[in-house]
From TrEMBL:
GO MF entry, a single one: carboxypeptidase activity
Annotated compartments: Endoplasmic reticulum; Golgi apparatus; Lysosome; Secreted
Location (main, coarse): endoplasmic reticulum
A Pfam entry, by short name: Peptidase_M28
Keyword set, alphabetical order: Carboxypeptidase, Endoplasmic reticulum, Glycoprotein, Golgi apparatus, Hydrolase, Lysosome, Metal-binding, Metalloprotease, Protease, Secreted, Signal, Zinc, Zymogen
Annotated source species: Paraglaciecola agarilytica NO2
Residue span(s) of domain Peptidase M28: 261-448
UniProt name for this protein: Carboxypeptidase Q
């Protein structure tokens, strides 16, 4: 169905893609354009201004809350104020849960307050709280092997520390305890589960994050201890003491509410139906102001699109900025976007999401049709000038676009330095002061280069359409 115009055979010698051609003046013109855009984006404070505006004027915005509703209005107004050609929102049914208070203390053998927070989606403790003994495990895997007699009527403490890593590789092996801990502990008769926070800091801020229940297993309260308090509790248990905790949590479900994916576009001047999608998520957890997660991403992709328009003019293909609803509660907005836009997913030239804080980007991974990787050489060269090296061609694209590759949508991952991201992730300490304006501007430049190159070249990153007998 697509016009042949944008398929690689014709694209190879186009104005922007000259790796297989000889016309070096045009090649250098492309490089000069990319360099000019990159310089402007590195100097622009727009991404920072946007995340500042979101964190100061809206702040916490957990899905379905009043803060979330204010964030939707904020996003529409921001896109309009920045002069996006089209600004619209698409409804998403989201789960609305509130944290309420979460208190814990050691009452025997010593008396100490513990700093905890409820995991996202947890039930409350019974009225008046729980008082019972605690049993420690070093991982979810060890808990699964435990004897029910050891756990029955007790609180399970999963004490696994997350390792610091630039790419965030320490997260996956530990976060399974957060998501599955309540199910596995309840199967063995536990009254509640507390995990060591999934975070790399040594503060008394506890890290929340979504957790799961299973319909056939009792729902027990689930919380996270700050790393410092997990250390304290561990010291008591390591000493062989019987430790009794009092825990009270008043988390609550408020049913399903309507939120929105908010979308701003610069419409393509030549191929408006072809889309370069850059996204971030608009929701956040409720305790911080969602600066790193994911105000930074909102600033980066919004700033990148606007700077392209300012510096390079109208893009040839449409640049679409999608601010997704309810990423934290199970990628709800992204799933709805994918469902609603199924018929036009084949028009997406590339999709990428910024959702890993505000650290500098060091690598670009792609998921392109193999021929397109070579065609994207000018982009890789421009990115190399701002410290971004070319990685592999098996990218995932970021959480909210991760479901698109199975529909044949090409994606890009711009990998950020996440060394310190998990010190603040999902805590009350995720605030604007953690965002480095200079690193944010480098992100803005990388997204601007990506989106501009994809929108203004004739590169076709998509898998070749299946040949039919009457083609050509
Ligand atoms: Zn996020």
């Amino acid at each position: 169905m697509k016009a042949a115009l944008f398929y690689p055979t014709l694209a190879l010698c186009s104005a922007l893609l000259l790796s297989a051609c000889t016309s070096t003046p045009q090649q250098s013109a492309v490089s000069a354009d990319l360099a000019r855009l990159s310089d402007s984006a590195l100097k622009s404070e727009l991404a920072y201004d946007v995340v500042k505006s979101l964190t100061v004027e809206v702040g916490p915005r957990i899905a379905g809350s009043e803060g979330d509703k204010r964030a939707v209005v904020w996003a529409e107004e921001k896109f309009k104020a920045l002069g996006f050609d089209k600004v619209y929102k698409e409804p998403v049914r989201v789960r609305n849960w509130s944290r309420g208070i979460a208190d814990a203390k050691v009452i025997a053998p010593y008396q100490q307050k513990l700093f905890i927070t409820a995991l996202g989606g947890s039930v409350a403790t019974p009225e008046g709280g729980l008082i019972t003994q605690v049993v420690m495990f070093d991982s979810l895997a060890s808990l699964k092997k435990a004897d029910a007699a050891q756990i029955h009527d007790k609180i399970v403490f999963i004490n696994q520390r997350m390792q610091r890593d630039r790419a965030g590789k320490g997260y996956g092996p530990v976060v399974i305890g957060r998501s599955q801990g309540a199910i596995e502990a309840a199967k063995l008769g536990a009254k509640a589960v507390l995990i060591r926070s999934v975070g790399t800091d040594n503060s008394r801020f506890a890290h929340t994050g979504v957790m799961q229940y299973s319909d056939d297993v009792e729902k027990i309260p689930a919380g996270a201890l700050s790393n410092a308090d997990a250390d304290n509790l561990q010291a008591m248990l390591d000493a062989g003491k019987d430790v009794t905790l009092a825990v009270e949590m008043r988390a609550k479900e408020h049913g399903w509410q309507t939120s929105y994916n908010v979308i701003g576009e610069f419409t393509g001047s030549e191929s408006p139906e072809e889309i370069v999608l850059i996204g971030a998520h608009l929701d956040s957890w409720d305790e911080g102001t969602g600066a790193l997660d994911d105000g930074a991403g909102v600033g980066i992709v919004t700033g990148a699109a606007k700077i392209i328009k300012n510096v390079m003019g109208q893009p040839k293909r449409t640049i679409r900025v999608v601010l997704y609803a309810s990423e934290e509660f199970g990628l709800t907005g992204a799933q709805e976007y994918t469902r609603k836009h199924k018929a036009e997913l084949s028009n997406i030239i590339v999709a990428a999401e910024s959702d890993f804080g505000a650290g500098e980007i060091y690598q670009i991974d792609t998921l392109f049709a193999p021929a397109a990787v070579e065609q994207a050489k000018p982009l890789f060269e421009a990115l190399a000038n701002i410290g971004v090296t070319q990685g592999h061609n098996q990218a995932g694209g970021g959480p909210d676009v991760s479901m698109l590759p199975k529909y044949g949508v090409p994606v890009v991952s711009l990998l950020q330095d996440g060394t310190y991201y998990f010190d603040y992730h999902h805590t009350a300490n995720d605030t604007l002061d953690k965002v480095d304006p200079k690193a944010l501007a480098q992100n803005q430049a990388a997204y601007a280069l990506l989106a501009y190159f994809m929108a203004n070249s004739e590169i076709d990153t998509r898998p070749a359409p299946a040949k039919t007998t009457n083609s050509h």
